[in-house]
Design brief:
Blueprint lengths: L2 H15 L4 H8 L4 H8 L7 H10 L6 H6 L15 H25 L2 E15 L6 E12 L4
Length: about 150
């Protein structure tokens, strides 16, 4: 087990022990999205020094954990491919089924390139529905055209 995955386990244990919600943790850490702070505490995004210090205090972590919370992560580490968690697998399934369609439609509208996952915004909302609430995920990434050289 890596030091980072050990820290993630301790973060999750503290969240349970302190009965905190991700949105509550996010509000205590700063003004970024709860998605950013959740990703950071799960080891997929770095915190800045002030945010890391607040996380250490709020989650009752070790003082030395702040440095690890600020390190650029190895994104995607620890997720098997294909994913085995049913919810994460559904996203994998969406990409497998609709990825080629998204690529064609984006290329037709913008040209040959990609949607950035670095210059990127995302939100997750509950959408009430009489047949059962729905999950609404909005993603917006900067278009980056491929360059010829």
């Amino acid at each position: 087990m890596s030091a980072r995955s050990d820290l993630t386990d301790r973060v999750l244990a503290a969240k349970r022990r302190l009965n905190l919600k991700w949105t509550t943790i996010a509000a205590a850490l700063g003004s970024s999205s709860p998605i950013v702070y959740t990703a950071a505490l799960l080891g997929q995004f770095p915190l800045n020094a002030e945010e890391a210090a607040k996380a250490v205090t709020l989650l009752e972590l070790e003082p030395g954990d702040a440095a690890l919370l600020m390190e650029p992560p190895m994104r995607g580490e620890g997720i098997p491919m294909p994913p085995t968690d049913p919810l994460i697998y559904r996203f994998y399934e969406l990409v497998m089924n609709f990825g080629p369609t998204w690529k064609q439609l984006i290329a037709e509208e913008f040209g040959d390139g990609i949607m950035s996952a670095i210059d990127f915004n995302m939100s997750i909302e509950r959408e009430p529905d009489p047949k059962g609430d729905r999950v609404k995920i909005l993603m917006s990434g900067k278009f980056l055209p491929f360059k010829r050289y």
